[in-house]
Amino acid sequence: MLWTRGLVLPGVAAVAGLVIACGTSLDESLTDLEVGDCVASPDSGAQEVNSLDSIDCAEPGAIKVAQAFDLSGTSWPGLGVIQGEVTARCPATTAFTLYPTEDSWDNADDRAVICFVSADEDLSTAAPTEAGPLTNDDCPDPTEQGPEATVKTYDSAPAMTIDESKSYTALIRTERGDFTMTLRPDLAPQHVNSFVFLARDGYYDGVTFHRVLPGFVAQAGDPTGTGSGGPGYSLPAEFTTEVPYTEGVVGAARTTDPDSAGSQWFVTLGEASNLNGQYTVFAQVTDGMDVVKCITPRDPSSNPGAPPGDKIISIEITES
Q: Bigger pLDDT: 270 or 238?
């Protein structure tokens, strides 16, 4: 599931030979392309490199292979999320390509992202070495311990009980402190109605922030803590371009199916314009963003055995 399973995107060193972090054996057409080789830059406005044929790095428009990420075994999440992941992992990247080893992206077991930088970039500074552990040393220690989460499932989405003419806020109490979200029923009434229902039913109590990538997102909403759980029902997309994904915007997680959002949600930790119009916006953090930024970083794709994330203690909904 998109945002729920996450992507396998560990940083790798820029060394001779194309490095695929988890050792995936890619199609032979890629094995000749090494870190430091150059290819032609994509057409204007294109998101992907169109050709993986090696060219002289001195040619106009050449871009250089900086690093690669393995996406083996993950569901296809869409360009927007991969671009966000690459931005978080490889900020110097000027372009990227997505490489399937089978005919269909939806069914491919082995996939990769290759990051490129300008041909004149010094790879010793442009491409990071293997990513170290994420830390938040400047943040205070947790002061309260959350309860154990209870896995609940429902036969169907809740009946519409919110009043779209009223205002709703959610006070999120976490082990790191509290933050407040203003809900947006004017933008996404069904998502807000579902969130209010689940919060009032205690669904989120004890649920962890299972995926937190600094500069990108902090994601919660799965009582199983695995990133694959949900409430047993899904919601139709309520996309908008009225509110762009900037710091503090709250969106609904989904799979490749636009109408598959459930209980999981994320807060953007920086600008993520690549998500605009692709994921339902249903709230905005209006107080306590410093708390959100102190939620313990956790990347289950690069460290599946990491300790559980920081917990939500409770969510209080206020209607006015």
A: 238
Query: For position 11, what pLDDT does the model report?
Result: 29
Residue pLDDT, tens place only, 269-291: 988 887 899 999 999 999 999 99
Phi, psi of 118 (to 5 degrees): -60, 145
Cα 9 to Cα 112: distance, rounded to the nearest angstrom: 9
Please report, for the chain, how many H helices and E strands are present, in that order: 5, 12
Amino acid, single-letter form, for residue 281: V
Other Cβ atoms closer than 10 A to 164: 11
Please answer whether residues 208 and 225 qualify as being in contact, where contact means their C-beta atoms are separated by less than 8 angstroms. yes
> What domains, with CATH codes, occur in the chain?
28-126 (no CATH), 168-319 (2.40.100.10)
For residue 33, the one-letter residue type is: L
At residue 242, the pLDDT reads: 95
Q: What is the sign, positive or negative, of the torsion defined by CA atoms of 156, 157, 159, 161?
A: positive
